[in-house]
Design goal:
The protein has about 550 residues and is mainly α. Helices cover about 65% and strands about 5% of the residues. Helix 13 packs antiparallel against helix 14, helix 15 packs across helix 16 and helix 17 runs antiparallel to helix 18.
């Protein structure tokens, strides 16, 4: 064992005191004496937030609730586990090999109990060497320099030796992240020619999806699932694809399969709960979201929006005890980080807790912000329904005054499908005047978009821009921004006499819209538009 490794700071995470003590003694026999211990998932999270560890030795089973594999996935997704940190899973189950074989985010190694000091030393030494070999790439990634990381990775290929698989996996994922899709697809295909590995199939499917090859991407994911029935990340990617295409019931079925395999994954539980709400199944949504809160504990992946939804549902059911418990939890989560989303959530929770509708006025200034997302909009309407004065029979809806000005903004911004309109309408509970107002506002936006699309089909691109752009700029409606971007690109491609000032202004506007649409629209559509727009921007040299 290297002298450097003997100085490593290690965290031993296991719920059994005797096991923790035994592993620490084994480490000491190997020359490693800087070892802390954690007895639960929650304590493991806290220690990792408060200290830097070179190595984590984590038990797979922690009794009821989240297991070590689910914790590892959570910490990698949240970015709380440094790339340099070695994670070794310890388990008494030989069947864990099947789990880790199809894990998109797997540990650096695993050990089956009982193990000797020599076995631990060998595994640690190998993992340490691998991390040190990849360190120059990690340095670039941590600096936010994806292209630099790709160059470093390519330079290390001739020296990879026993770490070739790890290097190819990292390089292919970086190529995909950087949008170098042709190069990424070629590398994934080369890897799959040598041997079938689940992560390469998933990577290829993601690449195909971003290239707009939807059928091929779906077929690749389906094949990955058939070959590896426990490959939950392939299921989740398939569910995301279905959601982007509006195939919500199919997406729900896939999420339920995911959760049958990993029932305590906080991120997936929240996604499934939000999707169930979109489908109008409040009972299923509540079941998923309550499970997310139970498993989430002090997880950074547990969203304040999730807990707020449960608080509002409890208040509607006149369950004051649960409502107050969840509202207090929301406010605690909102204090973790000062950002727009947390400020909005805190104001919503305060409005319900204190019964003050005037607090909603403070949220109005945030309604155009990208962080004012659909889930928050739903919670806003539910909050307004709870705290605003009762609707009076014969009340006239006016978009100039509260609460109708808020409902107007939300409907204009978010309604793109009947599903979303129905979800916003149902958030208004038993207020028919609100529901009709939301539906009408959404219908007007969709009619406007359809008129713009019809103009584009007639190649009347300037007229389409004139029709769509003003409302897209004020509402930030997803469909209007997308249609406006299409219209701008088509207009500038078809007209050679556009003055530079107008061309620059339109390209800047399209660039701004597309920046807001990233992650909200189909990945293939985004990539295609972004490539075309970047080409035009380079030619015009405006950004």
């Amino acid at each position: 064992m290297s002298e450097e490794l003997t100085q490593a700071h290690v965290l031993v995470a296991d719920d059994a005191p005797t096991v923790r003590q035994s592993i620490r003694m084994t480490l000491a026999q190997s020359g490693i004496n800087r070892a802390d211990a954690a007895s639960s998932i929650g304590e493991t999270r806290r220690r990792l937030r408060n200290s830097d560890y070179d190595v984590v030795l984590c038990d797979y089973h922690f009794g009821e609730g989240m297991n070590g594999q689910e914790l590892l996935e959570e910490l990698r997704h949240s970015g709380e586990l440094p790339l340099y940190t070695i994670w070794i899973m310890i388990t008494a189950e030989a069947s864990y090999e099947k789990v880790v074989a199809v894990a998109e985010i797997g540990p650096d190694d695993y050990l089956i109990k009982p193990f000797t000091s020599k076995q631990l030393t060998q595994r640690l030494s190998l993992a340490w060497s691998r991390k040190r070999f990849l360190k120059p790439i990690y340095d670039k990634i941590n600096d936010g320099d994806t292209l630099g990381a790709i160059e470093v990775a390519k330079s290390l290929v001739p020296k990879a030796a026993g770490f070739s698989n790890d290097l190819m996996r990292l390089l292919s994922s970086l190529l995909l992240e950087a949008g170098k899709l042709d190069e990424a697809a070629k590398l994934f295909e080369e890897i799959l020619k040598q041997r079938v590995v689940p992560w390469a199939k998933l990577g290829l499917a993601k690449t195909l999806s971003r290239q707009g090859k939807k059928t091929q991407a779906e077929n690749t994911l389906q094949a990955a699932i058939v070959e590896h029935a426990q490959y939950v990340d392939a299921y989740e990617e398939l569910a995301s694809m279905y959601m982007a295409e509006g195939r919500l019931n199919e997406a729900m079925a896939v999420f339920e399969k995911c959760l049958s395999l990993t029932p305590n994954n906080v991120g997936r539980l929240q996604k499934a709960g939000n999707l169930a709400n979109m489908l109008g199944d409040s009972s299923k949504a509540k079941q998923f979201l309550e499970r997310a809160v139970t498993c989430g504990g002090n997880s950074s992946l547990l969203s304040g929006e999730t807990v707020l939804q449960l608080a509002l549902a409890a208040r509607r059911e006149n369950n004051s005890s649960d409502a107050d418990k969840y509202l207090r939890m929301v406010r605690e989560i909102a204090k973790r980080e000062d950002n727009t989303s947390n400020r909005i959530i805190d104001l919503l929770a305060s409005a319900v807790y204190e019964g003050k509708p005037q607090l909603l006025e403070q949220i109005e200034t945030y309604m155009a912000d990208p962080e004012f997302v659909l889930e928050i909009a739903v919670s806003f309407i539910m909050t307004a329904d709870i705290v605003c004065p009762a609707t009076i029979e014969g009340e006239q809806a006016s978009g100039a005054t509260a609460p109708y000005k808020w409902l107007l903004h939300i409907a204009q911004r978010f309604i793109t499908t009947k599903h979303i309109s129905g979800m916003l309408e149902s958030s208004a509970n038993m207020r028919p005047v609100w529901q009709q107002f939301i539906q009408q506002a959404g219908s007007e936006i969709n009619e406007l978009n359809n008129e713009g699309v019809q103009l584009m089909l007639k190649s009347q691109f300037a007229e389409a821009i004139e029709k769509l752009l003003p409302t897209a700029q004020t509402t930030f409606n997803q469909r209007l921004m997308l249609s406006s971007t299409h219209a701008i690109i088509k207009y500038l491609r078809s007209e050679n006499t556009v003055e530079k000032k107008e061309r620059d202004a339109l390209l800047n506007q399209a660039y701004h819209f597309l920046s807001r649409l990233e992650g909200l629209i189909d990945a293939g559509t985004y990539h295609s538009l972004n490539q075309e727009l970047q080409s035009m921007i380079t030619q015009a040299k405006v950004i």
